[in-house]
Write a structure and sequence with these properties.
162 residues; mainly alpha; 434 Repressor (Amino-terminal Domain); 2 domains; 8 helices
């Protein structure tokens, strides 16, 4: 909850720095002024935090949004490599929320007795298993790549520190 208050305060400051208000922000992101007002009174959905940062186009806010969503600070945004960082963050947030929704559906179905599950529920479980298997495969490939890099780096680090 404190984290949500912090990002709302950062957004308000960014609006002020950029001579914007909630009404202008609402127009820029294609929602009603009431929706924006409700977000500031309640919880701002993560994908909307990214929309807000994109609309305000404030580098400080972009770094703060990264910290809010991923839990670590960026020291700066490098224009050549990070020009699309908010778009990448948005993709990650969307993927995470889709994955979470799929996991929640699977958990709900798994709490039911197998003989009471519908055909659609069985198909959803098959879909979940396929997605999970693909995710494991991707993680295994990345793990192998990281292990290879670490093995090479250890040799290089030992040589540097001799």
């Amino acid at each position: 909850m404190q984290k949500d208050r912090w990002i709302k305060e950062q957004i308000k400051q960014a609006l002020e720095r950029n001579n914007m208000n909630q009404r202008i922000l609402a127009l820029d992101i294609g929602v009603s002024a009431q929706a924006v007002s409700n977000w500031f009174d309640g919880v701002i959905p993560p994908s909307r935090v990214i929309d807000i940062a994109n609309a305000i186009a404030d580098e400080t806010l972009e770094m703060q949004v990264h910290e809010y969503l991923f839990g670590h600070k960026l020291l700066f945004i490098h224009p050549e490599t990070d020009s699309n960082s908010l778009a990448m963050m948005e993709d990650v947030v969307i993927e995470q929320s889709e994955r979470e929704a799929l996991d929640n559906q699977a958990r709900y179905i798994m709490h039911k007795r197998p003989d009471t599950r519908t055909q659609d529920e069985w198909q959803m479980l098959q879909h979940w298993a396929k997605e999970f298997n693909e995710e494991i495969g991707t993680e295994q490939v990345l793990y192998s790549q990281v292990q290879t890099e670490l093995a090479h780096a250890k040799v290089g680090i030992k040589e540097v520190y001799k």
